[in-house]
Write the structure tokens for this entry.
Amino acid sequence: MSSAVKKVEPLRFPFQTPDPFLFAVYHNDDYPAGDDQLRAPRRGNGADFDPNSAYRMYHGDRVPGFPQHPHRGFETITATMIGLVDHTDSVGNAGRYGHGDVQWMTAGKGIVHGEMFPLVNADAPNPLRLFQIWLNLPARSKMADPAFVMHWGEDVATAKSADGLTTAIVWAGELLGARGGTPPLESWAADDANDVVVAFMTMKPGATFALPPARVGGDANRSAYFFEGSALRCEGETLRKGVAVELDASVGAELSVPSDASEDAMVLILQGRPIGEPVAQHGPFVMNTRSEIARAFADYESTRFGGWPWDDDAPVFGKKGRFAKVNGVEYYPPSAAAAAAKDER
């Protein structure tokens, strides 16, 4: 193997991730047409994650998704490709986002939120494809106030390789001169010195892409995940779909797709300087010590992290378009905002 490739192993569910990341999962569901309440026929047992199923309800009843649940001590980056997510939380924030939008939420000292997948198409399928990635917080930020940032798909940075056959969508950090949106203030990614990169690449048959060294060189961890496609090479090594590749971030790595490949290759890149602190995790709580985990459970039991201001454990927003409500103010993606301004004129 090339010195750039440290390890190749089968992808797990969720993906194995390097510090400063905690978790990454790829949702790929072929949901059917929804009924008048945006629902699908019930499947599974209420905790179904079977990757061989056409679609999963996860913890949803008839609307798929994740009804209210708590988090403390880390951040979630939910990066969508296709489909919609309805968000609600204990702070009173809300939103409907998808089709390229990215929601970045700092749980900090504690938040309860719901993420539902409304089936808004009544006469057509409702496919869903997205990543959710958990980024750890350093000890100094684990009890920060919760925060919520929406990056609309129209504003998400993209770049093309020199041969034009690779498209990189940059959700965080910088790649090929394209820069991701501004993270929440307390995020590990908010400090450029941490060189956090989250990027999604689509490589067409015949593509060659030179992943440059990290800005901070070997001080960063870097992994590449080949999760969709028929063939990919990394530094000349032929990879099968469904592998995680740990890379040496101090040197570049060449990725390529054979010209006779039958499908585009899709690759997720996670990179960042490690936080380097102890990790104590129990389900949705990630702290530095077991005593802090016990305190998180006690705090949640006594405060519910602010309570749940919604009438339902799993709210959805009917036929409403994409929007975000943060600190009581609603705002909209550029396309919807421009249309509204035109109507007002």
